[in-house]
User: What shape does this take?
Amino acid sequence: MESMAALTGGFGYFLFWFIIVLTVLVFVHEFGHYIVARWNGVRVEVFSIGFGPEIFGWNDRTGTRWKLSAIPLGGYVKMFGDADPASMPSADVAEMTAEERAVAFHHKTLAQRAAVVSAGPIANFIFAILVLAGVFATIGQPFTPPEVGTIQPESAAEAGGVKPGDVITGIDGQSIERFEDVQRVVRLNPGRAMDLTVKRGGAETKLSVTPKLTTVTDRFGNKHEYGLLGIEGQGVQYLRYNPISAVGRAGGETLNIVVGTLQAVWQMIIGARSTDELGGPLRIAQMSGEVAQYGLAAVLPFMAVLSINLGLINLFPIPVLDGGHLLFYAAEAVRGRPLGLRAQEYGFRFGLALVLTLMVFATWNDLVHLRVVEFLKGLVT
Assistant: This one.
């Protein structure tokens, strides 16, 4: 019952850091929507961190109500002409006066509306790049030369002919600069034969390796299924970059995380990867508290990764999410006119049901992972 004890024993600590991390990321996301809406002349009525009853808030000079709400699991920006936080058009949107149309979101051009909707996820990506760039310029980026140190007996690397001292330069045509690149590519491809290019004794050698499917438990107690070669590098270094190079490196890492996340999601969809890895708010809370124990140097990269995932998830073409709005706008661009209100309403209902289903599923995974279900069974049996 270690996971359950960790959750209950440090609940306040975990909750504190979860709220801090989530509040920052939600603020960044919603501020992206807000600032681009204001640039395009849209009147913003509400900027809320959280949902439900208001805890406290204030009105600014433009009439926007800035508030903190009771349920800290997201947030929203409600613009003039919206019927609800999901940005469904209000019933009277077609009957607005010329003055009202000028500041109403739904009467802006298609390009302006798409820019406002896209701004939230884009803000998350920009935030992640800036945070990672700051870490790379001050603390440095972890770097392990792609030279093979030790090889585990009966491993995929041994079976493929990899030898200590080999320097890995490419995998399936992808250039390799550091050991972390090897891990990133191999972990997503368990059981698939891969072409490995190594430098050995000054000459280039081609090998074929098939990463073994391995279940790994991380320091947070989460179990993950990875492809592993069974090799270790020669030690970790931290490379610090100048500000410009740091931004470039951070952009590259952000792209790697996006690609890796999409590959993992696709593998879950086709059944090649276990959905047990899908975590919800409880696991994020646990990880927030655990990461915070390692200090700001660990919290900042953790926030950057979550920010990337928040931006990416919101771009999925699911009604209710930003990607769903962009999907409707794409249909509008093709049709030459917006979808009907009923079609949009049904789309949002479907999207909401899907999002809620995924949230329940992820939360159930959290409860199983944290052994809450096992704990509750023990109380009644």
